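Thread: Newbie trying to understand structure tokens

Hi all, I'm a second-year student working on a class project, and my supervisor (Dr. K.) asked me to get a predicted structure for one chain before our next meeting. I've only ever worked with sequences, so writing a 3D structure as a token string is new to me. If someone could post the tokens and maybe explain what I'm looking at, I'd be very grateful. Here's the chain:
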Amino acid sequence: PEGREGSISTVPGSYGAWIQTPEDELEMARQLGAVAAEFARIEADFGRRLHLGLEPEPDCFLETTAQTLAFFQGSLEQGAVPEIRRILRCSQEQALFFLRRHVGVCFDTCHVALQYENPAEALQSYRNAGVLISKIQISAALRSPASKEGLEALSAFREPVYLHQVKGLGSDQRIHSWPDLPEALSEIPATAGIQELRIHFHVPLFVSPASPLTSTADTLDDSFWREVRNGACSHLEIETYTFDVLPKEVHPGDIIESIVSEYAWVLGKI
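---
Reply by user tm_fold:
Sure, no problem. This is what the structure looks like when written as tokens:
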């Protein structure tokens, strides 16, 4: 609508293992530059601002806040700015302006929690670096101790529809990674020193899974909501999409009532 912005979330460049060379990074950046140029044309012609948000995700090219900031301050500018200049016939300064106005980050709180990052601090890092927060996706990951009881409880969440990357925090504070839940369940008993597991399985924000499982909804603390209220981003999206694959032990029941409950939870925080 007139007077509003449009945010579009997208993959963070690529699945991580597919990017092998600096040229691969520059090719992604050039493509993003072409998007920024097209969005600049749309805004000039129709007065409607659109922006694209790259969504860091476990095992993807961009996983962590630090990796994302490095890309935005390095390869993205190197590849995208010349492409914008070529398409729009504009100056270096104008091209950089269009890039920063139309390409940013989709901040998924489930994904941030999986990296054992503090959501409020991550938001502040992007804002301090001048990176646009295109959209905040409010979501929670599944959390479990790396105990026999925890692994048994997690077995109910094995399903073939979605990829459920797993991150484990070691006693040495090192983060261990598994590409999907079945691999994690088979390998963790042989991996010493894992204290906690976080699983890329979106669970409803208002639901507390049965012990010993919990969720990362508690990482969305007062400092995070203060950043939201202070204007970190105007687009918030509740992103629980797993109702069709949730085990019955944690499924909240009626879908419509569940969506209502999620809105009530978020609005209560705001």
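A couple of things are worth pointing out once you decode it. The CA atoms of residues 2 and 46 lie 9 Å apart. The mean pLDDT is 94. Feel free to ask follow-ups in this thread.
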